[in-house]
Design a protein that fits this description.
This protein is α/β, with parallel strands linked by helices. It has helices at about 15-25, 80-85, 90-100, 115-120, 165-175; strands at about 5-10, 30-35, 40-45, 50, 55, 70-75, 105-110, 125-130, 140-145, 150, 155.
């Protein structure tokens, strides 16, 4: 039986990364639902392409048991995350990540996904692939320069250009 996936997409989201995950899920009949880390389901890619997600992150909060895995799709919103961390959608994002981590569910992400896993307090001692620019920001996880890393229930890729290397391994645990 395949897993059911919750996909978090920031606004603006990196379409190159997001679409790799969604294509894998679609082509392999893996059930997924997209959640905007925003107040509305209408977001954009970092190149300006409008997207309609299925729901917003606020509605995923408290419903984590309906899913087996969480994907964090990075985007241009991340460089200003610290300035906007107090916004309700970002607080919901961290709460959802923490809930998935506390339940031992699969956590999948690229770029700064590992940093958010670290900020949420669920990645202590875990090896994570991180974008080179954010390695120094990680506090309790172990950031690596590897293209992708699997450590327990954490599946991380360094950037959207290395997600394709992670996907075959991810598919093995999702099918």
């Amino acid at each position: 039986m395949t897993k059911k996936i919750a996909v978090l997409a920031v606004n603006p989201v990196n379409g190159a990364g997001l679409f790799q995950y969604l294509e894998l899920f679609f082509e392999n009949n893996i059930s997924y639902k997209t959640f905007a880390v925003a107040e509305t389901t209408q977001i954009k890619t970092n190149s300006g392409v409008p997207l309609q997600t299925d729901d917003v992150v606020a509605n995923l909060k408290g419903n984590e048991n309906a899913y087996d895995a969480l994907v964090f799709a990075c985007g241009n919103a991340m460089p200003t995350f610290s300035e906007n961390a107090g916004h309700s959608e970002n607080q919901d994002l961290l709460a959802v990540i923490k809930a998935f981590g506390d339940k031992g569910k699969l956590l999948i992400g690229h770029c700064v996904g590992g940093l958010l896993f670290d900020i949420a307090g669920i990645a202590e001692g875990k090896r994570l692939a991180l974008h080179p620019f954010i390695q120094s920001a990680v506090k309790s996880a172990v950031g690596t320069d590897e293209a992708f890393v699997i450590d327990g229930n954490f599946y991380t890729a360094q950037t959207e250009t290395t997600i394709h290397l992670l996907l075959p391994e991810l598919l093995k645990v999702l099918k």
